[in-house]
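Quick start: read one record
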Amino acid sequence: GRKGGHKGRARQYTSPEEIDAQLQAEKQKAREEEEQEEGGEGATGDPKKERKSLDSDESDEDDEDYQQKRKGVEGLIDIENPNRVIQTTKKVTQLDLDGPKELSRREREEIEKQKAKERYMKMHLAGKTEQAKADLARLAIIRKQREEAARKKEEERKAKDEAAMAGKRLQSLSLNK
């Protein structure tokens, strides 16, 4: 067979009826305390209210009151936690799709970055940025160097042609003699 728990005694279970009775008693106590705090009017007690609290059919209202009871100092001090986010569910009909959409910080920074890049490219193509001015100056220097190199090549080619022509003249003159 199976042995009992490690403490050596049998387990005892409470029935659901006993649990309901305990909850009803706690709710009744909480109501009486609230009535006493409000001004003592509930000290005499209203028989209709007592009957309602004992009825199990009216347990829905009692559950709401029980959940609203605060623990510890919460009843005395109104605490507002800025970090606590209360989630509210919205229906599809309540959603505002036409309104302005708020962007996250990263999305805003990304859009600003793209706009700045576009502005820079426009300025660069117009030649107004420092880098564009440096590029244009470099291009002008390179063009001058290439023009000079082309001119020197042309002069050298003309010099060769003239030398070749002079050589041919000398040969033709020597042959004619």
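Confidence is low (pLDDT under 50) at residues 47-58.
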